[in-house]
Structures are given as C-alpha cells and as structure tokens.
Amino acid sequence: MKLVVGLGNPGPEYRRTRHNVGFEVIDCLARRSGLSDAASRSRFSGLVLEAELGGERTLLLKPMTFMNRSGQSVVEAARFYKVDTERDLLVIADDLALPCGQLRLRADGGDGGHNGLADITRALGTPAWARCRIGIDRSAVIPHDEYVLGRFLPEQEPLVAECVDRAADAATVWCQRGATAAMNQFNQRIPGESGPASTQNQNKES
Hints:
Elements: E1 2-6, H1 21-32, E2 41-43, E3 46-53, E4 56-63, H2 70-81, H3 85-88, E5 89-95, E6 103-106, H4 115-124, E7 130-135, H5 144-148, H6 157-177, H7 179-186
Parallel strand pairs: 1-4, 1-5, 5-7
Antiparallel strand pairs: 2-3, 3-4, 6-7
Helix pairs in contact: 1-6, 2-4, 6-7
C-alpha cells in the first residue's frame, strides 16, 4: 500500500488558499481515478480515498486535523496499513521558499519551518519519508501567516494549476517507480541556483 498525503486545513474558509495546495493535488488524483468527493470516507482523522496510481494500490489522505497536527492523521493511516514510511509515504505541501509554480521532490529532509511537515516528522520519529513541495512564493509585505492562509493572486493561479497537475503526475511516477525516478523527471532547477535546491519553508493552521 502506498500512502499519498496532501496537507491543508479543513473548512470552506481555507478552500483554495495557498496553504491548501496539497489538498488540491489529492483532489486532482481522485478525479483522474474517477473518484468523487462523495466516495471519501472519514478515517484516520482525515478524509480518505483508495485509488490505483501507477499500478499500485494507493491510499489518498487529506488530514482534517488542521495543518500543525497533520502527523496524527498520517501516523494513524501508516500504522493501520503497516506502511513502510521511508519507501511508501509521499507528503505534498506548499513551500514559501520556492517560486510560485515550482515543484521540488525529495526522498527525505528537514521541515524548513513548515508546521505540517514538522508535525509529521515528530509523529513518525524520523524525517526519512518523501515529500513533494509546491512553490507559493513569499511576500515581502504581507505577514507570513496571513500570506499562506490567503488566496492566490490572479497571475499566480495558472502557475499553480499547472503545478498541481505536474505534482499529480509526479505522485503517480513516485508510486510506480520510486522517489529517485520522480525526482529525476520532475525536479526543475531554479534560475540562478548553483547547487541542490534549498527546501526552506513556512508555517501554521500554518
């Protein structure tokens, strides 16, 4: 069983906000699999759908715990299905440190200040699990928490929509061929970057 988790905050007030792009990728994967919201079940402190991605049986999970308690939901699902989290867990989240619409996959790593990723590492007791980060840019004038909980600007929306599609593609390749293959195919170098990409991040409900 593969476990693909998209991070976000529950409730209509958070729908389509920058911090909820992980939820959007799960919704995209569900649509591609011919699944509707009505098919979602409430389990593991989240909403779950079972799909087949890349020929692999996959649980799609949206934690309903709010961002900074995402680890509770992930651990419940991983323990129930006895998931090898180092090999079979992929978490999709937003990233302030990446340009809007930029995609970055890693097989493991730090949380970069992202409360959802930090809580998953705390709950699992290890940072050794794959993550796919979607760039949302950083604002120099809007406070951090307000920015991540705000909605995309009109000029950002097409970039993010394309990135959500690519993230869904990347998740499918990850299921089928693993983290290295997905990284090789989908990671893009940021213009002006001289080495491996930085994956520093953000925050709460943030």
